[in-house]
Design brief:
By secondary structure, this protein is of the alpha+beta class. The chain contains 3 helices and 2 strands. Strand 1, helix 2 and strand 2 form a beta-alpha-beta unit.
């Protein structure tokens, strides 16, 4: 974010978004992203169908959803 802010002028009300993998993101990481200026997070769940999860190599059990 420091490099981006060094090269671009962000509007004060800009929506700054990032996609996270729910299998790997923690509350601490979400807080850190907020401190960096991210104010919109997309949770990257590709599909609930186990066959699709296998095909895209992103297995997420029911408990992790």
């Amino acid at each position: 974010m420091g490099m981006l802010r060094g090269h671009f002028a962000f509007a004060p009300d800009a929506e700054i978004s990032i996609e996270v993998d729910p299998r790997k993101v923690s509350a601490d990481t979400v807080a850190f992203l907020g401190r960096l200026g991210f104010n919109r997070i997309s949770v990257g769940i590709q599909d609930f169908d186990p066959a699709v999860q296998q095909a895209v190599n992103r297995i997420q059990t029911e408990a992790r959803r």
